[in-house]
């Protein structure tokens, strides 16, 4: 008795879980929360939310940074309740697939012979041409128009477009794969952001996001060999920038060497290195004939006449100083005095004399911005979206059924389809015309014999 009650409870639970209205309600909640997560900035520090959402926000007395932090809206997609909604929605799709969609597909494959075809979407009577091959000719006509026909006594059943009934199953599968891939990325993925000068090495330490069960190798060493920028010829705007990376093990042995750029990352052992940004960090000077004094000055990014540039100052004595202005890496460096007058233009490595002192700009120190991601669910997400696009295209294939009842002097033909009714009616008349052609040909062959 207890086992029967347990089965009843499980059956009712599964039935409720696979209910279409319940699935749509969960999907609606997920959509609303996703919109909210797009409005509220995610993964920022506490001071950001205190500034943007103060305690006395005009018009929103109760919506402030305290409520955002309490509900976890600052990291909405990682909260337990959002993950719970995704899991419930996935289970709803799985149960719907096995309890509704697969039985529906199985039912669609059955041969449905019937003598009562009055309730079909389309029906008509056609004159039966008296010949012993009439039923065979109808089946030939159906097969000619890509229908699968089956004959039983005086009834014929045919269908085509069964693949269109498979589309909802693949839609469910694609959504499940996408959600599962998202959960894998959430729990096992991590993101590292680095800004590293050329010539330096680093470990993967500056983690800005990590899943609860993520695992990032600490033995990998990344060395920045070089950084270059490709400029457009006409306006000197940046076309592309490149970083040359070497991946080393703990002993310093090179494992991988590759040049990366925007949209052309480096993939190694499940870790992806993206080129994201760059900046000029400092200028290195040598002073004196023997280069005894090496001075490194920090660059600041400013705008002059709407153009971005980097500037640093170099004191020449107690009362005066020089300014170095850099617009890009291919044009010369502008040397200005304290009044802003350009007194010289040089490239790195050139010599200049200021107050009888030899100054050489040794190099411009460039930093390359890298984003390193471990995302084990990304390929499942790609696969899910691919299946979704494919199943969407397949869903436009009409599933059509035809019933034929052969009577004494005529045959009654009827059919139904789930879309494109006008094309289906046209198919019916084409089948009748093809039947007439086959039957007339059979009669001619019989008369010739």
Automatic annotation (TrEMBL):
Classification via InterPro entries: Cyt_c_bgen_Ccs1/CcsB/ResB, ResB-like_domain
Transmembrane segments: 20-40, 80-102, 169-188, 379-399
Residues of the signal peptide: none
Pfam families: ResB
Single GO cellular component term: thylakoid membrane
Sequence ranges assigned to domain ResB-like in this UniProt record: 21-308, 368-427
Keywords in alphabetical order: Cytochrome c-type biogenesis, Membrane, Plastid, Thylakoid, Transmembrane, Transmembrane helix
Record membrane topology: Multi-pass membrane protein
Main location: membrane
HAMAP family linked: CytC_Ccs1
Record's function text: Required during biogenesis of c-type cytochromes (cytochrome c6 and cytochrome f) at the step of heme attachment.
Record's protein name: Cytochrome c biogenesis protein CcsB
Gene source species: Nitophyllum punctatum
Gene name for this UniProt entry: ccs1
